[in-house]
Amino acid sequence: MNRDQPLKISFRKLKPDAQTPSRAYAGDAGYDLAAAEGATLGPGERAVVGTGVAVVVPEGYAGLVLPRSGLSVCHGVSLVNAPGLVDPGYRGELKVPLINHDRAETFEVVPGMRIAQLVLVRAAEALFVEAETLEESADGRGEGGFGSSGTG
């Protein structure tokens, strides 16, 4: 694929008022997904909100559904399973599992509200080969995991 050409994504509106995924700014990586239905999320509550849109993610790619920073920072609303994964074979409605982390305020999702963003990334084809030992990493990290690099 020519990197200068945009990736063509076929999509279908499953509801008449569904919005086409779109970017706020030309250089944005994420395409905003809008709610096609309303939902009320009390403090700590979750809801799966439909977008009314189905897309075809091309072979060799994956669609990652990510939170919108404005909803997270301003309202405490995020995705239950961030990132959500859209595989190339999936043809159903894109649905967004939201959670309200705010301890006091109820959050209202209204149709047309941008609730998540879709980012398309290349997905490598891999062949997993079992080994008795693993070669050392070039940076020396080894088995250092959570917190191994410190906080400072």
TrEMBL record:
An example Gene Ontology biological process: dUMP biosynthetic process
Residues annotated to bind substrate: 68-70, 81, 85-87
Superkingdom per UniProt: Bacteria
Pfam families, alphabetized: dUTPase
Keyword GTP-binding: no
SUPFAM superfamilies per the UniProt record, alphabetical: dUTPase-like
Catalysed reaction equations from the record: dUTP + H2O = dUMP + diphosphate + H(+)
EC number: 3.6.1.23
Listed Gene3D superfamilies: 2.70.40.10
Cofactor(s) the record lists: Mg(2+)
Family the UniProt entry places it in: Belongs to the dUTPase family.
NCBIfam families cross-referenced by the UniProt entry: dut, PRK00601.1
Protein name: Deoxyuridine 5'-triphosphate nucleotidohydrolase
Gene: dut
